[in-house]
Amino acid sequence: MTKDLLTLFDVTQDELESLFALADKLKREPQLQPLRGKSIAMIFQKPSLRTRVSFEVGINQLGGYPVVLSQEGIGVGTRESVADIALLLSRYCDGLVARLFDHAVLTELAASAPVPVINALTDLSHPCQVLADLYTLRQHGKLKPGMKVAFIGDGNNMVHSWLEAASIFPMNFALAAPQGYHPGPEIVRRAKEAGISEITIMENPSDAAAGADVLYTDVWTSMGRESESDRRRKDFAGYQINAELLQKAKKDCVVMHCLPAHRGEEISAEVLEGSQSVVFDEAENRLHVQKAILTQLLGTATNVRATRPVAEKVQS
Question: CA of 158: how far to CAs of 126, 278, 288, in Å?
């Protein structure tokens, strides 16, 4: 991993394995505090539940001190320039966690800050969530080379991060999305150029779900696009993960959703709350994986770092 975690293109396959082994170690040994004496600034332009709580609790558990900053409080790019905020906070804090709209603001923060910067979500990418998703699949014995992940819905930042993941872990990634809602072509190109995964973008949800090991979805209307919600409900009609679609997948398929969920829209309540759902395991694992990310980038106790491989060594 580089100094920062901005997208999963920053992560190698070996680093993925080490990160998950470190998350295991921190779960087994909660007394470890590799961030003792360190302060982490957390910048939030967007509303947050899982991200804020998992990072704030995780930093505290690691012995650090989280400083939570809102857009109203600091005015990123309005009251003060992005570069000045990065330089100032780096004088006070040992790292920055940022949940922003524009990914370009995140890259400017990282370019200006001498301390590590972690992407806690932008409109382009959500690497912490997909790392937690992969860790959850490993927990349930599903993280295997060639696994089929079928994403049903908008080709948004979650899809971008899954495509990034497909460049470091070999999988069959199939996206079913209406025309006009496909992911950014540059990210698709980079993921395909890695040459280790099969990547297919289509419109038919049943075709995407056929034989899937994982069915994944997200809300049809992401934050910042609320004015499009009526049109999106019409455009995404038929793109729901429900009992009928689940029957197209493998019998032991797991269902994932990054939350918050809109029952009756992108997913049925029956499936979200059913026996094949691992949705709340995903949510919990945000805490464990982010603790490992923080330790990897900021931890001072070298004996905390885990070096043993994950249970299933990845073969590309």
Answer: 6, 17, 19
CATH 3.40.50.1370 holds for 8-125+286-304: yes
d(CA 50, CA 31): 23
Instruction: Please list the rounded mean pLDDT of every run of 10 residues in the chain (316 residues).
Output: 92 96 97 97 95 98 97 90 96 98 97 98 98 98 98 98 98 97 97 98 98 97 86 96 98 98 97 98 98 94 46 41
Q: What is the pLDDT of residue 189?
A: 98
Residue among 308, 316, 262, 291 nearest 18 (CA): 308
**Yes or no: is domain 141-277 CATH 3.40.50.1370?**
yes
Mind telling me the catalytic residues? 99, 126, 129, 218, 258, 286
- Given a contact cutoff of 8 angstroms between Cβ atoms, the answer to whether 134 and 160 are in contact is no
Cα–Cα distance measured from residue 108 to residue 311, given in angstroms and rounded to the nearest whole number: 37
Token duo for residue 4? 């920062």
Burial class (CB in 10 A: 0-12, 13-18, 19+), 251: exposed
Cα–Cα dist 176/179, whole Å: 10
Q: Range(s) for CATH 3.40.50.1370 in the chain?
A: 8-125+286-304, 141-277
| DSSP category for residue 231 | H
State the pLDDT at residue 224: 76
At 240, is the secondary structure helix, strand, or coil? Answer: coil
